[in-house]
Amino acid sequence: MKRRYLALAIDSPEPFSQDALVDAVWTSISRLYGEHGASQTNFSLIRFDVQKNTAVIRTNHTSVDLVRAALACLTKIGGKPAAVHVLRISGTLKALTKKLN
Amino acid sequence: MKRTYADLHLCANINEQSQLASLVREASTLGYGSVSIPLPFNITDQHVQRIREACVQVGLDFVSRVDLKPRFPEELLRDLRKVRRRFEIVAVMCYTKVVARQAAKDRRVDLLNFPQPDFRKAFFDEAEAELASNCLASLEVDVKPLLSFEGPARIRLLSNLRREIQTAKAHNVPTVISTGVSEKLLMRKPTELAALGVLFGLQGELAKAAVSSNPMAIIKRNRDKLSWRFVAPGIRVIRRGKDC
Predict the structure, then answer these.
(1) The CATH number of the domain where A20 resides is what?
(2) Mean of pLDDT values over B219-237
(3) What is the pTM of this model?
(4) How far apart are the first and last CA of chain B?
(5) pLDDT tens for each residue of B153-173
(6) How far apart are CA B218 and CA B138, in angstroms?
(7) Per CATH, which fold does B66-183+190-236 belong to?
(8) For A69, which of B150, B187, B196 is closest by C-beta distance?
């Protein structure tokens, strides 16, 4: 199964936890595509940097567009206003780290 | 060639300099090359110049825009006569069917916007698309309601948008995706706007064109028309001098 790694920048005036981020992304995905659709995205959080407000997530390569749309629809994390922007997409974690640097 | 992205509907409050500066800075950071901010009819040239300078400071190209909200076709025609030579983009907010029809068949209208999420007031049907395809009007989709609505309201909105986009594609009416937002945290990257297109049936190249080539084509066409060189479609001044 091909995977894609997405580097995210989270813009939020208030701090939030890793769990709140995962919860917000899952909520956004399942609201848009339902539980069946959400289960097909294979979304998981790989890395979260609380200092820089950046994260790396993983998903199926066939679900990249759907996950990007769900991330764009996300307006709150932990009940506080936030925006999630995709910085880079790559097929491997190593290449993603290289692109970001 | 690198794409230039444009947001043709950034609803900044032009009277609040700090909010305006913050929004245009964010637009530049997100990767836009051009932004269009709706302006009131009676705005002065000095005020427009100040907004243009605020955009230039952050490396953005500013495009003047006016949003017309007429109640009757006659009002639309009167407004178009007043504003067409003053603004680079003319958008019509279609609140009634008669106004929508008149706007679609008028070549002075650039963007048709249908702000009402109510499916009973979805005026972009086959007839509207046919009229728009014979003129120069494009269909504008604001993503703000997509971000702010939840549950059944968003389901109905997506259903309407899907139908409108399908009709636009069938009649070759260009589509433009804009943000339509006035808050920094609701702004999205152009590639994210294109990704949102997946939700209403606009995918791949078509979605990318809706945030880059389609809006840029409108800007170029109107700037050419507003230039002193333009005489009539197909006729332009190429030189001015004593020997001409």
Answers:
(1) 3.30.70.3250
(2) 89
(3) 0.91
(4) 38
(5) 999 999 999 999 999 999 999
(6) 9
(7) TIM Barrel (3.20.20)
(8) B196
